[in-house]
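Predict both folds.
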Amino acid sequence: MHNVALELAVQDPAGARIASDVGARRVELCSALGATGGITPSAALIEAAIDAAAVVPETAGAPILEVHVLIRPRPGGFTWSAEERALMVRETVLSVDAGADGVVVGALTPDGRVDEETVRALVAAAGDAEVTFHRALDVVPDQLAALDALADLGVTRVLTSGGAARAGEGAERLAGLVERSADLGVEIMAGGGVRLDDVPALAAAGVDAIHLSARRVVTEDGGPGGGAGSYEVTDADVAHAVATAVRELQLR
């Protein structure tokens, strides 16, 4: 079995520490994941997560956990106004300057193709940092053509469910993307509703990485001023179970 990296979507420094503890390769740092699908975190949160990730790994010689920041100014679709594009470029620069190892972006034209002009600007703004194109890819009609375009633009990897509602249901399409990516040098990372029992099929499809949020909801009453509500945290047990499953597959 080839090496498969694990990436966790986290929303706070505690999530980054859990990712490091279970041996994840990267985190995607975002805010409001459950409510919006994820938006750009604050500058202070980026700095705090990078500080939390900068720990000595438990396994000698293992790389320090990487922090990749989601660059998404609002929920909804992935066609951006000129003002939003300028904001995304600025957020990319600030994230990399803060010490982020990479950024996670997505931009489409109104007719559903990769917005090459915007992605090119974001790749340039990222400099030497890695750029991941997120699940905007899953609403593109022709994923293979999009993969070709993203490779030409210098994108490091794509995050995709293979166009399915969940990555576990898109293994066949993911395998096709993996086959195409072999000639392009773009990594394929499976993500989208990933469950523990999806890991074997996703690894068998040949993906370079598996991405999941491993989150649970905490319900808490904020009183008259805060209102009843909930927030999300990274579930250490789920993260550990998936990390263990990935490692066991690689030992076979």
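Second protein follows, with its predicted structure tokens after the sequence.
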Amino acid sequence: MLDRGVDQAHGLRRLFAHHTVHLLPVAANPHTPGSHLLLEGLCHGLAAQDLHTLVVDAAPSVYTTGVDVAGALARDLDLGQWIDEFDAHTSVLAAAPASLACFGEAQGSASLLFEALREAAPSADVVLFHADASVLSGLFAGRRVRPLVFSGDDAESLKHAYASIKVLVHYAGLLDHAVVMDCAQQAIGVPPAALRLLRCAADFLGAQAHLAAVASTVHDGEHVLAQTLHQLAMNLLHYALPFSVQDGEASLWGPMAGASGRPADAPRAFN
């Protein structure tokens, strides 16, 4: 179903041979209501470095079923027709979760998906996958990448974040994670809930979970939230997965080259 033919793949490799995109897996958390504000801030932080981000949003949603990505590629359709451009630096593809999950089932299928996304969004420097950990584990199994895990400081959100890390450890072999905690109240210092989550990941899963940022999408002012997420965006690029159509995924982590640091004044991309 996912075989698109040797000729087309060869053409893609020639067209995009010298452009490397950076792939960022973000584990969705339905119990963190500020997730889309966090995603928006992250995209603005990347835009401030003059980087274009394609968000592949495959988190379960009551508002849309998402595009059947696997079915579209099987019919040799351009995914670009379903990509919405919000501004000069951010675009979004709403994808059906099940259609992404199948790309993790066969060897080489994930790379085929990455190639197709690169073809559909040729201006993208970063492709951010916002999906359930079970979907991400198939796409990024065994790859040198640090997933971003969203969590709140309430019990349900913490349980879901821990379960996400557990899936990524057991099914993808990913032991290194970055946690962003969205607190119900403004936090001073490291929130106790974050310490519990990091300690449980280490003690029960043998994983290293790092607290990448603490925010409060409810109480932080726009400027404070933007500063926090801008710094987060800069740090996360060091742990993204470099991928080029010519060479496949790069073997080492590394910082994004050529980021200019130019600020961006963009409207909100997510509701």
